[in-house]
Specification:
This protein is mostly helical and 404 residues long. It has 11 helices and 2 strands, in the order ααααααββααααα.
Amino acid sequence: MFVSFFPRPKLFFWSALIWTAISMALWYGYAQGLVEPSGKIGVELFWSPQQLWFDLYFAISVAIFAGFWMTLAPHPWAIWSILGSALILFTSYFQVQVSVAINSWYGPFYDLVQAALSKSKPVTIEQFYSELSTFAGIAMIAVIVGVMTRFFVSHYIFRWRTAMNDFYVTNWSRLRAIEGASQRVQEDTMRFATTMEGLGVNFISSVLTLLAFLPVLLRLSSNITELPLIGHIPYPLVFAAIAWSILGTGALALIGIRLPGIEFFNQRVEAAYRKELVLGEDDPTHAAPPTLAMLFGHIRHNYFRLYLNFMYFNVGRIVYLQTDVIFPYILLGPTIVAGKITLGSMNQILNAFTQVRQSFQYLINSWSTIVELISIYQRLRAFEAKIHGEPLPPIETELEPKSL
């Protein structure tokens, strides 16, 4: 799954993690201070001196890392796996910067709206539309970069699938006897690359969002000194975001712990049914109605099991997410009623709090996708074991999935 696309995967990913930590420490500890922030709001933020300095710093860091690996362990897919991954990382950072720019825009815009509605100071229609045009400029850049990123990511995913496909086809003589081998090569390779890229990008975005919005939340929440029922604690909104996210993540992970195994067996019974139908196209001794009825019965049995377990999971997930909508308002209730913040400040705090909270809720927002990825990984892991002469994973010999 990884060795076909990345050079020496275990060492590569560990070195990428270490190099990223070193580069970030150097940036926040030294390099960032070499250029003064502009303090601008709007599209000017994206080509401000500090932003351009960061772009150059990022490019130099990537060039050093890529040059090291291309020299140490040449790989036919190195350009896509190393430089392509770096480009996706950069666009994830850019999208976070778009969110920061929009959050900065919230303050003056909603303060302007509040002033207009309360008639506390004169507001002209030109001022109002000028603020909207600022948002439109940010949004336009975000759309252009987003579309170009998705186009590139589509090619990135297909290259990863191609690398896996070539690797497994080369070893096909040893893999063909595994149940559903054709489906695993033809379908699961694409699903694995797509799902892995999506989860990876979301995880990176969550980390970058935390780095970008935690300081913003700390700065904006200076007027909030205590939480309902808890009282005065340091950094109350940050504490609340972390505690609330850990509670939801732990509860939903416990409820959905059986789903990956059931999804794996779902693919197994589907593959058995599909194979019998394919054999029946050329051989009249296959695909007899009693056989198809039995195989479809297995499909029905496993799907009903899957639906039941997803019902448990969705009850917890929906209750949590619906409560999550009003949770920040509960925290800000005393501050809003006391009139300690303006409408613009409130919207900035709510947006920053939501960004931080959702970053900590990565597992909650991605759990269904993670379930699918684990199932695909288990299916392709059998290929890896066969190629390396290792025993097949235990799930390959289980007759029934475990469920609640």
